[in-house]
């Protein structure tokens, strides 16, 4: 998958490029300034709102209202404590972590199992199972939310963290099955054959041989699924009704409305910063995998 | 078939398929039936009303406003995002191309790639809350703060019917561009450099190289990206629900209303579940029509290289 972004460029390495004429080089320099000007402008447009939110989270509410350009007189770290405890961002954060951890584990577990069976076993109905899952990718979730709301309430899955995790996982399954089926097909059949000859059963072959071998595929799907579930908004909005079961996106949106009335801007910005910074840290640590994974995943 | 295959297949598939059918397939199927009833969700009884909900859609002013806003989004967001994405990707990849003779990318290409992409991994709800404050109607908001620097009075971005929807569309473009920059950089990197060398020897200008060489060679990617963007633009729910006036009303005065939010309000605020589901079916039809039309319109012969 990394080939998508890193295709070797033989021409650039085999022969050093000829020096361009002087006139062109001067034109190139002007163009270079122009290029950098534009590229930096967009970079600033991306970074500025985020930096502004982080800066505002260290101000008092009065300072927030005064001037967007001012620096905080002294950094107010207690804003974060307020946001975490009083404004319940801490609870939302924890809830989201639980839901996404369980939800993505279930997605990967079920997705890998279905994909492996569909990719590696011939049986009647194989195609039907595959298309049943893949068809789920083409329908907008909106179409399902009204019946889903009542089904989830009937089964006791609404307003429950584990229930939400289960619902996240089944709605992520189409993508996981689609992607992982393609992945399992690329793995050599000789591996499974060898495992069978060595006396592994079907489950043993799947769990001990095929899953570890499929790790790169699982990681790509995992990144995509974790991000998607972490950012989910529609499903929790309809399913989680008591505030102590809120996830971060929902809690933050709710906080934005209530803090707006209360005039407590610093807690809101601190809450925003708490929602942004962990994602930034994870992103910076894994940005290459995330970018390749998401770009490849989106276009499958 | 190997011993025990059958049992393995059945035990492996049973749980995922059952859960998937109960929680995903059945809601989708049920919604087609619910859209033909007058169900209000409170009472178990639902009367079959045929196509009455669909007939009512035709007279629903808010439905048409929402539909129009969705159509605007489907045109504006892909066009603006693809244009900016192609522009930045070209600049990053071939910025130093004449100066150094190879398509190595400008200095700082890695930084641009990382910075531009970041908004895409943030939640739309978080971005919505962030930009609600950026667009604050007073001078304390970032947008008005910037205008203040050049001496323009504060604008009530999200409170004014004229500016509210464009302001929200701009946020979607803002968060989407980086993803497509990375995507197009990837596609461009698989074009052999010899083609550029040849074009340069023939005296092609920068624009000609982009227009006649790069664009045709990555057209497949651009096309898929456009369809993908358009399908996402049909959603718009989270951003409108978070950013529009008075806690997701689609206001001011439906100036930012989209089908997703109209559906949500109809179902979970007015308890008109039958009617809301009919809006959902309309949204599905719109998605299918869009995918079909865009694939027809953007069809070009594939170029092998």
Task: Describe the overall structure.
The complex is a heterodimer of chains A (300) and B (305). With 300 residues, chain A is mainly alpha-helical. Chain A is built from 14 helices and no strands. Chain A has helices spanning 10-14, 22-56, 61-66, 78-85, 89-120, 126-135, 142-154, 161-186, 189-197, 202-213, 215-230, 234-239, 248-262, 265-299. In chain A, α2 packs across α14, α4 crosses α14 and α9 runs antiparallel to α10. Chain A is globular. Chain B contains 15 helices and no strands. Chain B has helices at 5-34, 52-59, 61-94, 97-100, 109-117, 124-134, 142-149, 164-189, 193-201, 206-217, 219-233, 237-243, 245-248, 259-268, 273-297. Helices cover 70% and strands 0% of the residues of chain B. With 305 residues, chain B is mostly helical. Chain B is globular, with a radius of gyration of 24 Å. Chain B: Belongs to the binding-protein-dependent transport system permease family.
Which characteristics define this entry?
heterodimer, A: MetI-like fold, 2 domains, B: 305 residues, MetI-like fold, 70% helix, globular
């Amino acid at each position: 998958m990394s080939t998508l972004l890193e295709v070797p460029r033989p021409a650039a390495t085999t022969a050093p490029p000829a020096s361009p004429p002087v006139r062109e080089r001067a034109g190139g320099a002007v163009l270079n300034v122009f290029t950098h000007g534009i590229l930096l402008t967009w970079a600033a447009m991306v970074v500025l709102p985020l930096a502004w939110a982080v800066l505002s989270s260290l101000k008092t509410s009065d300072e927030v209202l005064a001037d967007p350009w001012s620096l905080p007189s002294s950094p107010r770290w207690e804003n974060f404590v307020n946001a975490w405890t009083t404004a319940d961002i801490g609870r939302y954060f924890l809830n989201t972590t639980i839901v996404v951890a369980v939800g993505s584990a279930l997605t990967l577990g079920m997705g890998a199992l279905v994909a492996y069976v569909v990719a590696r076993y011939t049986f009647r109905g194989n195609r039907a199972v595959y298309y049943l899952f893949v068809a789920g990718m083409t329908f907008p979730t909106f179409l399902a939310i009204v019946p889903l709301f009542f089904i989830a309430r009937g089964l006791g899955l609404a307003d429950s963290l584990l229930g939400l995790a289960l619902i996240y996982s089944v709605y992520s399954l189409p993508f996981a099955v689609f992607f992982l089926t393609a992945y399992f097909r690329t793995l050599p059949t000789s591996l499974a054959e060898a495992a069978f000859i060595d006396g592994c059963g079907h489950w043993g072959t799947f769990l001990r041989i095929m899953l570890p071998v499929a790790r790169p595929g699982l990681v790509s799907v995992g990144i995509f699924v974790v991000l998607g579930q972490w950012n989910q908004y529609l499903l929790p909005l309809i399913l989680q009704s008591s505030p102590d079961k809120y996830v971060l996106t929902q809690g933050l949106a709710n906080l934005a409305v209530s803090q707006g009335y209360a005039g407590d801007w610093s807690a809101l910005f601190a809450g925003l910063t708490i929602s942004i910074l962990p994602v930034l840290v994870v992103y910076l640590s894994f940005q290459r995998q995330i970018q390749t994974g998401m770009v490849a995943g989106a276009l499958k | 078939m190997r011993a025990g295959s059958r049992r393995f297949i059945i035990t492996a598939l049973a749980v995922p398929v059952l859960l998937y059918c109960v929680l995903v397939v059945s809601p989708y199927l049920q919604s087609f039936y619910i859209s033909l009833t007058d169900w209000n969700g409170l009472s178990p009884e639902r009367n079959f009303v045929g196509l009455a909900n669909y007939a009512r859609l035709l007279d629903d002013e808010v439905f048409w406003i929402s539909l129009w806003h969705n159509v605007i989004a489907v045109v504006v967001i892909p066009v603006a995002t693809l244009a900016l994405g192609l522009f930045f990707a070209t600049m990053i990849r071939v910025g130093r191309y004449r100066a150094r003779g190879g398509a190595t990318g400008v200095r700082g290409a890695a930084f641009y790639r990382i910075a531009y992409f970041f908004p895409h991994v943030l939640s739309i709800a978080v971005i919505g809350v962030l930009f609600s404050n950026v667009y604050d109607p007073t001078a304390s908001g970032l947008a008005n703060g910037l205008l203040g620097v050049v001496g323009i009075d504060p604008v009530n971005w999200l409170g004014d019917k004229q500016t509210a929807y464009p302001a929200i569309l701009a946020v979607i473009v803002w968060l989407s561009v980086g993803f497509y920059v990375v995507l197009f950089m990837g596609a461009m990197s698989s074009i052999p450099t010899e083609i550029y060398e040849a074009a340069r020897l023939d005296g092609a200008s920068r624009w000609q190289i982009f227009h006649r060489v790069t664009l045709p060679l990555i057209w497949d990617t651009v096309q898929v990206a456009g369809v993908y963007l358009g399908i996402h633009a049909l959603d718009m729910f989270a951003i409108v629900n978070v950013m529009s006036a008075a806690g997701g009303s689609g206001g001011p005065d439906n100036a930012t209303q989209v089908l997703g939010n109209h559906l949500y309000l109809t179902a979970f605020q007015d308890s008109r579940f039958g009617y809301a589901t009919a809006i959902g079916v309309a949204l599905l039809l719109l998605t299918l029509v869009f995918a079909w039309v865009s694939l027809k319109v953007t069809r070009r012969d594939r170029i092998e290289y």
